[in-house]
Amino acid sequence: MTVKPPERISRIVYLGTPDFAVAPLRALHNAGYEIVLVVSRADKRRGRGRSTAPSPVKAAALELGLAVTDNLERLADTNADLGVVIAYGEIIGEDLLNRLAFVNTHFSLLPRWRGAAPIQRAILEGDDRTGVCLIEVTPELDSGGIYRCDEVTIDPDETHVQLRRSLVEVGTRQLIAALSNGFGDPVPQVGEPVYAAKISAGERELDWNESTERIHRRVRVGRAYTEFRGRRLLIHRTSRDGLGSAPLSQKLPAPGELDGVIVGTGDGILKLIEVQPEGRPRLNAVDWHKGARPTNVDRLGKSD
């Protein structure tokens, strides 16, 4: 049995790691809650220099003057009222769940997209809506009862980063409201669970024989790439808008074939907006095309 949140909450432990988990931490601090301990993943090598650096949440906690650790066992000594979990990245054991109430902000409409990559999977599968659920933490992954859930519409051109920003804002307001007004009893999740596995490198590689819609979704998920002249080319932004008036040749380009910044796909065309050649900064696709000067034999994608 997991522990239920008490009616009055003042002392909180916060568990989070990546950059998007910083805003809720700051909101809790600004709202006046006593954050007795922050738990984040251990320091690791980050950036080009590969020097050891703290996680974004740990860095923010230190800036705020909060106690921080990467050892979950230290939670046992905090005498906290509640543990708040947002993208922490590790499983919390049953021994801790039996001693302290934990809630988790999860970025999907549960039980759809339990797991590591709910926002990316929602985009990749073409969902037109998602949301934020504040749930109890249980031993089974993202299966706890729901305290609150808010729905968010997904714009068909919205990127993972843009959608995540919106969901974090909704989730932060949701969490502060629950702390202020009480959690109540959680409602069991209803429906067949769908799991959101982490996006693999292979899923980020663009296959220009796929449909325009499918390729556009992969780009929206982030870190999509293809090859150009044997080197990796990151595709940061694409567009399907205004293609009817694009200056195309009489015949549509074949999959991977370039006509200016228009690329052929398996069922049509897609416009490149922002790209990044290997070892270079991001730049406008038009500027990249002017510099690269693709020939008639150049294609995007792996050569046969």
Distance between the termini: 57 Å
The tally of beta strands, per DSSP, is 17
Based on Cα principal axes, name the global outline.
Answer: elongated
Strand percentage lies at: 25-35%
Q: What string gives the helices and strands in order? A: EHEEEHEEHEEHEEHEHHEEEEEEH
Q: In terms of per-residue confidence, which ranges show pLDDT below 50 for 5 or more consecutive residues?
A: none
- Average pLDDT figure: 93
Overall radius of gyration: 23 Å
Structural class by helix and strand composition:
alpha/beta
Helix content: 10-25%
What is the tally of helical segments? 8
Which strand order spans the largest sheet, edge to edge or round the barrel? 5-2-1-6-7-9-10
The major beta sheet can be summarized as: 7 strands, mixed
Describe this structure in words.
There is one protein chain. By secondary structure, this protein is α/β, with parallel strands linked by helices. The protein has eight helices and 17 strands. The chain has a seven-stranded mixed sheet with strand order 5-2-1-6-7-9-10. Strands 12, 13, 14, 15, 16 and 17 form a six-stranded antiparallel sheet that branches. The protein has a two-stranded antiparallel ribbon with strand order 3-4. Helix 1 (22-30) packs parallel to helix 5 and helix 4 (118-124) packs antiparallel against helix 7 (212-221).
Task: Provide a short characterization of the protein structure.
The chain is an alpha/beta fold and 304 residues long. Helix content is 24%, strand content 27%.
